[in-house]
Specification:
Length: about 625
């Protein structure tokens, strides 16, 4: 990524580096009690921490969740505990969340992601002959408003459920544009929704990255008959969430050059900008061409490694000591179901299980993005051992069965090194957790093979999507260009490719970018014209991934996040020349239950905040 930021020292307090080869942690005792002066608690979360759980009872769960601020930390506080809880629900449940905003210094949100400056400004993106025109954006000024998005839930995009575009709560100080400090969400989980792993996080456009980096996100498990069957076999689950605490950069100047003219975007200026664009001369607003000018796009450049946590405990880089790696026990000879959310803002996980000598160990993947492995009719698919690394993009979820190691031996869950493209990040290898066999003298009966357990084959409204007739096609282009001026920043774009289109960032309160008819099945080509990966996400619905770079997939997966390959040179001998896009084709339908405005965006949330988002208006 070209936009790279400095680490929060407060977030990583207690971290001690031991040089390039090793690292360790020192910590004070963790106390998550939220109290005056320590609204987000004190101390470091211990390695191997299990997230506090709240479970529905008699078909409902009702809680008050307060967003509190402690310097450059944000936290969800429930019942006086400053830890985002794991919510355990079941299809058909009623979930009521009263979200209250007690953010007391929005300026720290605005500066948490520092603004860096160039010694020479980026120029305007001049319209290229026979190419789509580009409209640059501006910096969003943080307001401290917040809201809640239940990621992956198949629920309506309207209040009081998963409406994220207009619903917001004002901070304790600062802007009061939302008109309320509190939101009461009333969610009704569909009785036939897929059961699996979901999560929640804020969705205030322009502030998502900062609020997530500062601490706001948490996991949700929707349980069903498959969970009941596994428990009967002695197979427990373990829920993990990886978060990112900073987006780092080196060697950038945070002082604007003398005489630099700077612009920032407030809610008012965004509205003004949208109106100004509507009044621009038509020759600057449209082009008959659907060509993308790739020569002016963001060039190659790398970032430093970003700090991440596991269930709130820091993951040490380099070669950590075993004592500084989370230890999870599995009863000897048994299995566990591990459910992992990649809640990072842009860090890719490339998961593998290895033994002490680095040899790969098998896992069985049960679900992706909250949906059990199932065919188009919802029938369960056979689970197979795999030793291949599993790429889990930001916002995606994976659930897998893991065997206990032999007694006296240790397995390690690692994230292998992964490069997201020459303009992206080179995510280094990280050791996430240790796995040991537990022998406490209480031998459990050996669990039956998971293949014999009843599989939850329900995929709800998504059943039959592959067999359904396609009624329409669209092309959506992902692009990024340097933002004109002295600010070292980029604008990101998600544009429907159609005659007269302009490449422009998403603007709050603007009209939807395009409309679809409820119940009409479409195929979309998502074209990545940039030099880095993007994680494409749709609210409300999952989609089937039909093909990648023109190659049809034999077993199209059902996802709500998909990586779109980066663009490559048309002529390999000219790496800085014209590019050809990476392309993913998806099949998608918006059922009548989801009439309203549905966001779609890149879930590298810096990209979303800076324009790579669109709104689909679903018509009755």
């Amino acid at each position: 990524m070209r936009r790279l930021f400095a680490t929060s020292l407060a977030t990583l307090a207690g971290f001690t580096s031991l040089g390039a080869g090793a690292a360790t942690l020192t910590s004070s005792a963790w106390n998550p009690a939220s109290r005056p002066g320590f609204w987000c608690g004190t101390g470091l979360v211990p390695q191997g921490h299990a997230i506090r759980e709240l479970q529905s009872s008699n078909g409902s769960l009702d809680l008050t969740m307060t967003v509190r601020q402690q310097d450059d930390q944000l936290c969800y506080v429930v019942d006086g505990i400053a830890e985002a809880p794991l919510l355990r629900l079941r299809p058909g449940d009623h979930l009521t969340i009263t979200l209250r905003n007690e953010i007391n210094d929005p300026s720290l949100i605005d500066t948490f992601v520092p603004t860096h400056y160039l010694s020479q400004p980026n120029g305007e993106i001049a319209a290229a002959q026979d190419a789509m025109p580009v409209q640059s954006g501006m910096k969003h000024e943080a307001t401290g408003a917040t809201n809640l998005h239940l990621h992956g839930f198949p629920i309506p995009p309207v209040a009081p459920q998963d409406e994220t575009l207009k619903t917001c709560a004002d901070p304790a100080t600062g802007s009061q544009a939302c008109g309320t400090r509190q939101i009461v969400y009333r969610y009704v989980l569909p009785a036939n929704m897929p059961t699996g792993l979901y999560w929640y996080h804020p969705h205030i456009h322009g502030e998502v990255q900062a609020q997530m980096l500062m601490g706001l996100s948490g996991p949700i498990v929707a349980e069903g008959p498959d969970d009941d069957a596994r428990r009967a076999q002695g197979i427990e689950d373990r829920v993990l969430i990886v978060r990112q605490t900073a987006d780092t950069e080196e060697g950038r100047d945070v002082i604007p050059p003398k005489g630099a003219v700077l612009k920032s975007m407030t809610h008012e200026s965004m509205n003004h900008e949208a109106m100004a664009m509507d009044s621009m001369p038509s020759h600057t607003m449209a082009s008959a061409s659907l060509n993308i000018d790739t020569e002016k796009e963001v060039a190659c450049g790398k970032a430093l490694a970003d700090p991440i946590t596991l269930n709130g405990a820091p993951i040490v880089g380099g070669r950590p000591l075993d004592q500084d790696i989370a230890l999870f026990n599995i009863p000897a000879g048994h299995q566990q179901l591990w459910r992992l959310v990649n809640g990072a803002t842009d860090f890719y996980l490339n998961l593998a299980l290895i033994d002490e000598n680095g040899r790969p160990q098998p896992i069985k993947v049960v679900s992706w993005d909250g949906v059990p492995q199932a065919d188009d009719k919802g029938h369960p698919e056979a689970l197979h051992d795999t030793i291949e690394p599993q790429l889990v993009s930001p916002a995606s979820r994976i659930e897998f069965l893991i065997n206990s190691p032999p007694e006296g031996k240790t397995f390690y869950l690692v994230s292998r090194q992964f490069d997201t493209g020459c303009a992206g990040d080179d995510n280094p290898e990280r050791l996430l957790a240790r796995v040991a066999a537990q022998d406490d003298g209480k031998r459990l009966p050996k669990a039956a093979s998971p293949a014999e357990a009843k599989q939850d084959s329900r995929i709800g409204i998504f059943a039959g999507l592959l067999a359904a007739k396609t009624m329409g096609h669209r092309r959506l282009a992902l692009t990024e260009y340097p933002r004109p001026g002295y600010v070292d920043a980029s604008d990101f774009f998600l544009t429907e490719m159609k005659p007269g289109a302009v490449i422009q960032p998403y603007h709050m309160n603007g009209a939807p970018n395009f409309s679809v008819k409820a119940g009409v099945v479409e195929e979309w080509d998502i074209e990545n014209w940039t030099r880095e990966l993007h994680a494409f996400h749709t609210h409300q619905v999952h989609f089937r991934v039909l093909a990648v770079n023109g190659r049809p997939l034999a077993d199209p997966p059902l996802r709500d996040v998909i990586n779109v390959p980066f663009a490559t040179p048309v002529d390999p001998a000219k790496p800085d020349g014209a590019l050809k896009p990476g392309i993913v084709r998806i099949k998608i339908v918006f059922p009548p239950e989801f009439v309203g405005d549905v966001p779609i965006h890149c879930h590298l949330v810096d990209h979303e905040d800076n324009g790579m988002m669109a709104v689909v208006h679903v018509e009755p």
